[in-house]
Structure formats: structure tokens, C-alpha cells
Design goal:
The complex is a heterodimer of chains A (246) and B (306). Chain A is mainly α. Chain A contains eleven helices and no strands. Chain A starts with 33 loop residues before the first helix and ends in a 6-residue tail after the last helix. In chain B, 47% of the residues lie in helices and 19% in strands. In chain B, a hairpin with a 4-residue loop joins strand 8 and strand 9. Chain B is globular. The chains are: A mainly alpha (246), B alpha/beta (306). Chain B: One of its GO terms (biological process) is methylation.
């Protein structure tokens, strides 16, 4: 850049060069330098372990460490017809876009009905997903957003509740599926806070199943869930390649 | 194609600010950090920043300055050297750091006075000694008082909670008010302080005029604020730390990148030492001087109303 004269002498004022302008790629985007990303990754990892209620830190960790996994995921989506359509149409899963009444009215065992049941049983909402901030590509920002919004559907498909145990199982599945370092870290460190009994169930049954399913299944981001609410969960599981839960 | 966004280069700056935009008789456009906003927008944005940071304000100060802000505030109080009958107005005093230090200082001065008096009265009866203790215990602050004034309710709330928690109650009052238009009469206070607050004032000239108004003749104006590091090497290091680390700390600790980005930008936008000195003189203060702390990262400006 050009040398800048001091602003305070009132005379020599240098204008900002146009191409150095700070610009947002998408609403909520905060551009960061490589150093800042590294600091954020380290800091968010520590904070997420220290205070598990800081979901925003898990989100930040995912964004700052996903620079290899996210393009990978995006390419997988591009190569698949349904995934490609999702990338084009950019559907969002939000309470305002879901017709909850209709989904509730669907037959038991259908994706829509079970998804709504899951949301109500666990008292969660799809609107609490953090929007991405530190991803420096707006298409990849959408990919990570989609991954976050589809997380609850993962719970539904895997039949796992939102307690610590259930979350860890889903993380293992997601780690195998997406390769996101945040999932790998979550899967590895999540169990730290579990009781011995739960750890045993986790290690002997749930994790092996999650890994096998994750490996066997096609990419879960390539499923246009919004167009499959009527499909029975079991049929969708089979189609994707998720083994029935233990 | 992957569109990589260019992150803002380390030392890039927006347009320099002509005097009009630096808190003097301002036109409609002002700075909010490196953004250009209207005066009304600026007030609102700053209000939001402090509402958002209030609860984590102290934690963040410790993290960002590695605890050094405590030393800076200690220096301010020592420079002030208040006596037990000083009436202090601490503007933008939010979470009470200056007020509490003031009270501690005055208490210890009073105790030393008491001890000296007792030493001179070696032949008092026990009754007389007992009575003098009683009288001084109820008056441990002397006639001192500190009024903490802040424009932001959340900050005052945190300050009051802290006071309760730490056991400060006597001689301390909390007032919601605007530095540009103080809710106090003329010629009221012995000392006026504003620590890390004047940077967020939209019309600095008005705040300085108000400071002059509410001080008694002979009263002292003290301003503790981030300032300009002239040493080029240190300046680069300081910039690096400010722009690369502080917003990250804000995100990690407080979940709030933007407020801390604003903070480091507002520091760069603030007038440097000499210019602030001139502004203080313009408001009618005499014997205006400043002292740099840590190579100018922080400066204490002082002036007297005659």
C-alpha cells in the first residue's frame, strides 16, 4: 500500500485504496486475517471445552478450521444432482419457512412427523443455529449453514436425543461424514464429561454403529430434506445408508 | 470459483478525519470507529456497544490489557492525591473502578491522619480515645464524596452491583447523565475525572465545557484515555496487538467481535496528546498538561479551572 501521511496534521490525508476496502461477502461476515483465524481457532477450542454452554465457540471453531473440509463438502454437493440443486436453491430450515402444522399432521414414522416430534421432545428450535461469520466464501458459508441446520435432522435420522451422549454420537457420525475438524474434536473430547456407564455404552455400541453408518451412508448434505417430509424415516435411512440404531 | 475475501490489511485506515469530525462543532457526519455515520447513529451505536459489553466489561479490560489498566487507574488516583474532603465527579464512571480507588485512597489517608493524631495525644484517657475512634469510624471518608455519572444504564447497574459486592456504600452516589449535558449545578466539584470515557463522547468540546462548568474555581480536570504512540516500532507492535488480538479476545470472551473492533478503531480516531491538550485549553482550563503512560498507549491530561 502507499505510505500514509499522518491524519492529524490536517493536510496530508490519504484515501483508502479501493481494492483494500473491507467488504462483507454476506450479511454477518467478518473478514479475518490468517493470524486472527488461528487465534480464534485456538481460543474457541479452549473456551468450548471450558464452558460447554458456549455454543457460539463451537460454531467459531468449525468455521475457522473448516478450510479443507468445507470445499470438499461443497464439491461433493456439486457433483450430486440433489446436492447441486440445494446449492442452487439454498433452502433454509427455519421456523418461519417450515409449516409446522402440516408436518405435525403427517403420519407417524414420516420424516416430517418425527422431526417435529424431536424438536418438541427436546425443546429445541432450528432457529438457534449460529449464522456463519468467519468463512471467507459465501458459498462455503452456505454449506456450513446447511450443515448446522441439518444437524437436528441428523438427530432424527439417528434417533439420538440432545443430551450429551446423543450429541456425542451424532458428532461421531458427522465427523466421519464431513471431516470437519470441529466434529472430530467434539467427538473426541465430548465424552470427557460422561459417566463411566455411559462411556461404556458409547464405546461398545453407539460409536461403532455411528462410524459404520457414517462410512456407509452417502453424503447427508446431498439430501433435499424439505422435499421429503412425507417419506418414512426408515425408508430414508435405507436410502442414505444409515444402519438402524441400536 | 472460490471468491476469497481480502481481509483488511493490518494498517489500513479510512479517510482521515478533519477537525470537524473529531467531536468539535460537528457536521452531520461522524466517525464510529472507522465507519462514517450520522451523529444520531453514532450515539445509538455507542449505546449499544456499552449495553452489550457491560457485564463483561471488567473481564475484558483485564484480558485486553493483561491487568495493566488497574495500574493506569492507580496512577490517576495518585496523581489526583485527594484529601478527605474532596468531592469527586467521575464521568463515564460506569463500573466504578475510579470511584472505588478514590474511596480506598481517601480512607487510607484518613487512617494515617487518625494515627498521627493519636500519636500526638499520648496522655488521653481511655474514654477519650474510645470517643475519637467512634467519631472517626462513622466518618471514615471524611466529608468525601464521589458521584459516579454514566450515560448507560447497564454500566451503572454493573457498577452498583460491584459496589454492593465489594462493600462500598458510604459517600458514593450513582447518577445517570450525559457528559455533554451534566445534571449538576455550576461550581460544584473539586475534581472531575473521565477515565476511558471521553473517547466515546460524541461532542468532546461540549463535554469539556461541561467539565469546566461543574468544577469549583481551583478545581481539577483529569482525563485518562488511550492516546497516540509516537515510537514507530512500538506503534506497529501496538497496532498488531490491537487489530489482530483484541477483537479475537472480544469474540472468545464476550462473544462480541464488533464492540471490540469498535474499541480499537475508536482509539485510532481519537485526538493525540497535543491536540487534546489544545481542546482542553479551549474549554477554559489552565495549566493544562499531560503525562504519557506506557509510551503513549495511555495518557493522563490535567487542567485547572481558575
Amino acid at each position: 500500500g502507499r505510505a500514509r501521511l499522518s491524519r492529524w496534521d490536517g493536510r496530508g490525508v490519504e484515501e483508502e485504496e479501493a481494492e483494500e476496502e473491507w467488504h462483507q461477502l454476506y450479511p454477518g461476515h467478518i473478514p479475518t486475517s490468517p493470524l486472527q483465524k488461528a487465534l480464534l481457532a485456538a481460543g474457541s477450542a479452549v473456551m468450548a471445552l471450558y464452558d460447554p454452554y458456549r455454543h457460539d465457540m463451537v460454531a467459531v471453531l468449525g468455521e475457522t478450521t473448516g478450510c479443507l473440509a468445507l470445499p470438499n463438502l461443497r464439491d461433493k454437493m456439486k457433483r450430486h444432482p440433489e446436492g447441486h440443486r440445494i446449492l442452487q436453491e439454498r433452502p433454509r430450515i427455519r421456523l418461519s419457512t417450515l409449516d409446522m402444522a402440516r408436518l405435525r399432521g403427517l403420519p407417524d414414522g414420516s420424516l416430517g412427523r418425527e422431526y417435529v416430534r424431536f424438536l418438541e421432545d427436546n425443546k429445541v428450535s432450528p432457529d438457534t443455529r449460529m449464522p456463519p461469520k468467519f468463512v471467507d466464501d459465501e458459498e462455503l458459508a452456505y454449506v456450513i449453514q446447511r450443515y448446522r441446520e441439518v444437524h437436528d435432522l441428523m438427530h432424527t435420522l439417528l434417533g439420538m436425543p440432545t443430551n450429551m451422549l446423543g450429541e456425542v454420537v451424532v458428532k461421531w457420525f458427522e465427523a466421519v461424514q464431513t471431516g470437519l475438524p470441529m466434529c472430530v474434536l467434539g467427538a473426541a473430547f465430548g465424552p470427557v464429561r460422561l459417566s463411566a456407564r455411559k462411556l461404556q455404552v458409547l464405546a461398545t455400541e453407539l460409536v461403532p454403529w455411528a462410524i459404520r453408518s457414517g462410512r456407509n451412508a452417502s453424503c447427508v448434505l446431498n439430501v433435499y430434506y424439505e422435499q421429503r417430509w412425507e417419506q418414512p424415516v426408515e425408508s430414508l435411512r435405507e436410502e442414505i445408508g444409515i444402519f438402524p440404531p441400536p | 470459483a472460490v471468491r476469497l475475501c481480502r481481509w483488511r490489511p493490518l494498517l489500513s485506515r479510512p479517510l482521515g478525519a478533519p477537525r470537524a469530525l473529531r467531536g468539535l462543532a460537528a457536521g452531520p457526519e461522524m466517525h464510529f470507529g472507522f465507519q462514517t455515520v450520522t451523529e444520531a447513529e453514532r450515539r445509538e451505536k455507542i449505546n449499544q456497544v456499552f449495553e452489550s459489553v457491560a457485564k463483561k466489561y471488567d473481564v475484558m479490560n483485564d484480558s485486553m490489557t493483561l491487568g495493566i489498566h488497574r495500574l493506569w487507574k492507580d496512577v490517576l488516583i495518585h496523581k489526583m492525591n485527594p484529601s478527605p474532603d474532596t468531592l469527586l465527579l467521575d464521568v463515564a464512571g460506569g463500573t466504578g473502578d475510579i470511584a472505588f480507588r478514590f474511596i480506598n485512597y481517601v480512607r487510607s489517608v484518613r487512617e494515617r491522619q487518625l494515627q498521627r493524631r493519636l500519636k500526638h495525644h499520648q496522655n488521653l484517657s481511655w474514654q477519650e480515645i474510645f470517643e475519637s475512634y467512634q467519631e472517626d469510624k462513622s466518618n471514615s471518608l471524611g466529608d468525601s464524596q464521589v458521584v459516579v455519572c454514566d450515560i448507560n444504564r447497564e454500566m451503572l447497574k454493573v457498577g452498583k452491583q460491584k459496589a454492593q459486592h465489594l462493600g462500598y456504600s458510604k459517600g458514593l452516589s450513582w447518577v445517570l447523565g450525559n457528559a455533554e449535558e451534566l445534571p449538576f449545578d455550576d461550581d460544584k466539584f473539586d475534581v472531575y475525572t473521565i477515565a476511558f470515557g471521553i473517547r466515546n463522547v460524541t461532542r468532546i468540546d461540549l463535554a469539556l465545557q461541561e467539565a469546566h462548568r461543574v468544577l469549583k474555581p481551583g478545581g481539577r480536570f483529569l482525563c485518562l484515555e488511550f492516546s497516540h504512540v509516537s515510537n514507530p516500532f512500538l506503534s506497529r507492535l501496538y497496532d498488531l496487538y490491537s487489530f489482530q488480538v483484541i477483537p479475537v479476545l472480544g469474540e472468545i470472551i464476550a462473544g462480541d467481535w464488533k464492540s471490540y473492533q469498535y474499541l480499537v478503531e475508536s482509539i485510532r480516531q481519537f485526538p493525540p496528546q497535543e491536540e487534546l491538550k489544545e481542546m482542553i485549553e479551549d474549554a477554559g482550563f489552565f495549566k493544562v498538561d499531560y503525562e504519557n503512560l506506557n509510551f503513549g498507549i495511555v495518557a493522563i491530561h490535567s487542567g485547572f479551572k481558575l
